[in-house]
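Morning. Coffee machine broken again, so started the prediction first thing and wrote up yesterday's gels while waiting. Chain of 423 residues, entered below exactly as on the submission form.
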Amino acid sequence: MLDNYAEETKPLFKLLRTEAFRFVLVRYNHYSLVQQLEEDLKNRFPDRPIRKIDARKTDYETLTKAYFSLPRGFLFVENFDDVLIEQLDSQNRETPQYMADNERRRGITAGLNLRRDKLAKLPVALFAFVPAHTGELYAKIIMEKMPDLWSFRSIILDLERETSTAGEAIEDVPFRLDDHKTSHLQEDDTELRRLLALLENTPDTETAYRLTLFPQIVTAAMDTGKYELAYSTLDDWETAADDSAKAWIWIQKGDVLKTYGQLEKALPLFEKAKDLADKNGDKYRIGLSCKRSGDTYMDLGDLNKALQLFEQYQATAQELFAQNPSNTTFKNNLAISYSKLGETHTALGNLRQALTYFEQYNQLEKELHEAYPTNVAFKNGLAISYSKLGETHTALGNLPQALTYFEQYNQLEKELHEAYPTN
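Came back before lunch.
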């Protein structure tokens, strides 16, 4: 039976004899390997505690609190592959709910990278676990998203154990996709194959029909993780499209590159999209391009440039909302722009300015939730806004006020969890 566990872990256990900060990336094809590693660490280092956290269900603050609560030992971050992705809906849009999740993911990778030196002060080994289905580019993405953390006392383990069937391997990973999501991906793959067959059987001369297929194929390819196919389809779409569609095509190309961690290659595409949208007077795409560029500069650590772009995003969102105040998309984008400004000012240390933006974010999210009380995304956005206010008041030393906001955050999250216990 193929099992490289002993060979792969031998240098790790040797390194861990010396108590110091380590960043350990573990890729595995069978969850029993994670359990075996945990058991061996307990047996070899019984005086060092182990704490576990799920990357899908946490944010940067919670993760680092767990880390710094350990004076020594090991922090297991399971499902670390989740923070390496960006989600879009079936229309290739970043919905409010996906926006919040993508923001949370970027906060984790950027935060860990920026706080490397602080993390390194504790003799704690940070274990990041990624299942084998993540793909071969996971390490490259981590290197590009977190270059400072990666360069400091890091080690990769690639653990393999022979399994009798592919089904058994999936069953033994308890935090893999739930049944609903698995079904959704299978349906999307079927739809993707159908769309590709339609495109193949459509003559090049039928440009109008092919132009309706390209965006559908891109969406289906992105949904199923086939990013190279998505990018090549975007190339074909760009060749056939007129200028009115190219800004959106370039934004999506940049999104694909960001998925692979190629931030500096994505930036020119976002900037080119902004220039074209500006030329065409497309305010919505201008704002979208500014947001994407701002997020990318945040990931690269250029906070001042990010702030400049988020200010442009806010101004455009404000203009669109003023022109059409009944448009919920415009109102939600304005709320998100305030959140982005608040986060950037927080990172720059301007807490009182950040608080002002988070208050505006919270007010808009309250209005959206009140107008659409059954909309899960708006309810989750309101919860997050209370969390941001609580965190900022905590940092400012206003603990009673922070407690009030965290209580509201807690109440909304309890309601969401009760309504959607498997989410």
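The CA atoms of residues 358 and 389 lie 6 Å apart. Going to sketch it on the whiteboard this afternoon.
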